[in-house]
Amino acid sequence: MKKGFLNQNLKDGLGDERSEYSLKVDKMRKSDGFALGSGWDKFDPSKYKGGTGRFTKPKIFKQDTPKYHLSFENPKNALSLWYGQRYKDQKFHMNECFVTWPDENSPSHAKKFTSVFKCPITLEKFMSGKWKNPKQYSTTMEKSDDPGVSVEVVWFSKKKDAEHAAAAKALDCLSFREDGKCYTLCEDAPYQVHERSLILPLSAPRDEIFSDVVMTEAAANVTEDEDMEDDLQSRADYRATRKSA
Known about the structure:
Elements: E1 9-11, E2 17-19, H1 20-28, E3 34-37, E4 40-43, H2 75-86, E5 90-92, E6 98-102, E7 113-118, E8 125-127, E9 137-143, E10 150-156, H3 159-179, H4 206-209, E11 216-218, H5 224-244
Antiparallel strand pairs: 1-2, 3-4, 5-11, 6-7, 7-8, 9-10
Helix pairs in contact: 2-3
Region (Disordered): 223-245
């Protein structure tokens, strides 16, 4: 990674203070610097040209393999396919990989939620990222169990969106680590394993997050009925993904 690629603040032409990473992604979306990878359009820093531009949804290339045409609107389904492509000998209980909790300071009629995704392979944890339009989430600085250290928490009005945001953050980081490219689903930048340690807010249910819940199963142990059920669910998820694309 280039020195200073992350964690630098710049100002665009309108005077907004933004990270260098964010500016580069925005500019890339006005150029042809998206490369195909695993059925996704991926941000390739090596093709960065410059220019200006606000955040826009990247173009989905028609030549993508339809089976892996992944929608930016459904990161959980996309993440499930991502793992399925790389760990074909495992079945993943994806819903068991998320721990979601409410903001106790939000009013009862307008609860907000955040989530953590637990990688079923490495057990690394990813908190909800800044996914979708900024108007659809809010952030707060929360105290952590590390004295003197605060952590930014991203909140959503729906549990499913909080989980999608955690999946989006995981996809950004995992894709970035794999080949230096990134799906850029979240506004906040991806990071390498050694660049950031997990800091949880005091509100996080640590017992659930660090529990020993089984999230994977050897493919050979899955019964024919279970496999058929998974296939039907996968087809339903795919149809929903195509409709939302």
